[in-house]
Design goal:
Blueprint (H helix, E strand, L loop, with lengths): L6 H8 L19 E2 L10 E6 L38 E5 L5 E9 L2 E8 L8
Antiparallel strand pairs: 1-5, 2-3, 3-4, 4-5
Length: about 130
Amino acid sequence: MKYIASSAELRLALTDYPAPQACSCALGACTAWESLAEYRWEASQMSAVGTLRDPSMDEPTLEEKHPQGTRYDSPDAPIAPAFFPYNQCEVWHCQRCDRHLLRYTEFGGYNVDPRVRELAAGKIID
């Protein structure tokens, strides 16, 4: 999977696709990070765009970036590719609604929690 190394590269990757439309698939809005059961991930309509995870880093930072005082689960939280959880995400394109989605797996003890968030270009920051 192609490594997307910066905010600029991420914005550029989105320009190769049509404008997103309202979602009509099982994912729903996903404006903030949502837990996503595997049965809701419609793999047949998803195509991989790239990864934000730096292949040269064994342990990416867990530091988050919230310059406007948002939180991890806020729909207004910025998308900062060098910071958690974005630095552990893959970028996907939904062929049904032309949205881009960020996806990663949260691990905690024995719990594995796949999560997804819509990638809104206007929220990408450095």
